[in-house]
Amino acid sequence: MHRNFFIFGVTILFIGVVIAFGIQSVESQDDIVKRGKYLVDAVAACGHCHTPRAGADYDPDMYLAGHPADKQNPQYNFSMMQHNIFLLVSPQLSAFSGPFGTSFATNLTPDNETGLGEWTEKMFIESMRTGHHQGNKANRKIFPPMPTKHYAKMTDADLKAIWAYLKTIKPVKNEVSPVLNTRGRPY
User: Fold this and answer.
1) How is the chain split into domains, by residue range?
2) Which one of 1.25.40, 2.60.120, 1.20.1070, 1.10.760 gives the CATH number of domain 28-73+104-166?
3) pTM assigned to the model
4) Maximum Cα interatomic distance, the chain, rounded to a whole number of Å
5) Tens digits of residue pLDDT in 116-127
6) Mean confidence (pLDDT) of the chain
7) Are 177 and 138 in contact (CB under 8 A)?
């Protein structure tokens, strides 16, 4: 009888400690994906560059698919600096040209050939941390206007949530141009 009271008392004490110290349950995969969607669409605002515009509105068929392969890119000329022009942007708001060269919003969809389908979560997180393509410092840097210094400060949990969400969206086949140097040649 005393043993049963002891076990009951220890159980109540354990529950009290859990409640007192706020130990929370593990998030479900659904919760992680929902958080990722919130981060992608609201906080990180990935769609502002990675979803091209069709007129003034986002092109819903190209959600996070990057700069359209069939669209021209802006071409910066250094003489523009004399007129205080430091950045040209494509009409789709997904390609950017300036003194650094020309960069294109990449395809963030899980398409295996043209998007992040072959990437791993580790590659994605390392890309955000290092500012280098596929997270490998031997690869080229991710070019402006991508705010890699800001994303590098995100928590692992947030970056994992973004990754989890990106893996759930519709894959879109869209081969985005590589970054171009100031002479219009790929880096």
Assistant:
1) 28-73+104-166
2) 1.10.760
3) 0.82
4) 91
5) 999 999 999 999
6) 88
7) no
